[in-house]
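Here's what a typical entry looks like (Unconventional myosin-XVIIIb):
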Amino acid sequence: MENEFLRKRLQQFEERLDSELTSRKELEQKLGELQSAYEGAKKMAHQLKRKCHHLTCDLEDTRLQLENQQSRNHELEKKQKKFDTQLAQALGESVFEKGLREKVTQENTSVRWELGQLQQQLKQKEQETSQLKQEVETLQAHKRELLGLSSLGENCVAGLKERLWKLESSALEQQKIQNQQENTIKQLQQLRQRFELEIERMKQMHQKDREDQEEELEDVRQSCQKRLRQLEMQLEQEYEEKQMVLHEKQDLEGLIGTLCDQLEQSEAKCEDALKTQKALTADLENMHSELENMTRSKSLVDEQLYRLQFERADLLKRIDEDQDDLNDLMQKHKDLIAQSATDIGQIQELQLQLEEAKKEKHKLQEQLQVAQMRIEYLEQSTVDRAIVSRQEAVICDLENKTEFQKVQIKRFEVLVIRLRDSLIKMGEELTQAAKSESQQRESSEYYQRRLQELKADMEELVQREAEASRRCMELEKYVEELAAVRQTLQTDLETSIRRIADLQAALEEVASSDSDTESVQTAVDCSSGRKETDNISLLSSQPEGSLQSWLSCTLSLATDTMRTPSRQSASSSHILSS
């Protein structure tokens, strides 16, 4: 009777064990589902990191394009300086030629004045000679009259002869003077003809030089027009490339929205899994109470305990090995946390550099405003081309400085890309840890099979159940630790998104200083960007809103970049018209 009673008790005990094993399997299945949900969330985070990496690669490409554009601008500045020096040389030569012309004209006027004076003197001498001829004629007439008079004496004839000789000597002197004056007049006429020939030759040389200078200026103008056309074509190509980038960003927006929805779903699943885990812990406590009641039947299975001690020792060894593997995983996790701390320090340094870039940007904006005011004043007033060219050179320098600031901002974005690559590596190491965890799960399943084979031994089953409960607690702790790691990674992602939003806002402020109307529009965009950055603090509860704010900042930056080439083309057309 006692044997039958013991058999019935054993059958009841086996039935209870079966029911407990089924409940245990259900609990393990629920734990597996929770772990799969957690792995899905990690995969989604890894995909998000990859998307961020692609975006950073795009930013690197744009930075390289900006560097190429800056080098082209430097080359254009050098060519503009050469053109200015050539213009200055041409102006100096023209001034020198003007001085030579003035000297020639002065000499010509002096020669003409001397010719006029000599002609006047010649006329006076001719008048004097005519008067002397008249006197000679009158004297000859008087002589004839005197010769005709026979009553006069020899004294009168001698006096008349003396007067006649004097008059003849004076007439000879007058003829000599007249001949000398005629010779001087001929020499002056020859000099006049020579000067006229030299003046004509100088005019021809000056005309040739002028034609050469005009041809050179036309060549320089044509080359400048060709360069400007090439620059316009390059600006159009860059504008098209920016539009392509905008389309790609819009596509990425859709992907990020879907990823946000999937993240929300995974978070909801995690919350449900935590609730079910709590319920399972309550069930485990009830099972422990039942197992304590079952320990009373310990004396029935003492003989089988000796058989299974060897297997227990093997299992303990394997458990120790698993514990060592877990310790290695925890050490890797700590290393990853330290690496994330260094990445955060680098991001802070980037923020300081961004603040310095903003200060320099404000200074450059003030200089640009002053230069624009000076250009407007110079356009209203008639100023020399040299002053206008200097002002244009100052404006080009300021624009180059702004381009340099943009290049620095792109370099900071490249650093952010590198940090994001390090985060991706951390995610890969976490996946490796998950694989090792799956291996541990397989080993635990193997131990569970061993426990199913040891149904007969009641005390050993109690011990195995205690070990299983302890293992479940360890797994729960490990899940909690992984959840904490996930939260830290999420906070790091939030901080990186904030920094990217700040960078985009800074770029918007740089692009908004071009015109008054655009400054109003960008001010509205910046206010919306600030509201979105305030909402980023709630990213843990609202991840989709934070990502949407970041996307709005990127879109506003893209619109500003689309406006910049149109402004540059307008400025180039204005320079051509001036």
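Residues 2-148 form the longest helix (147 residues).

More examples are in the samples folder.
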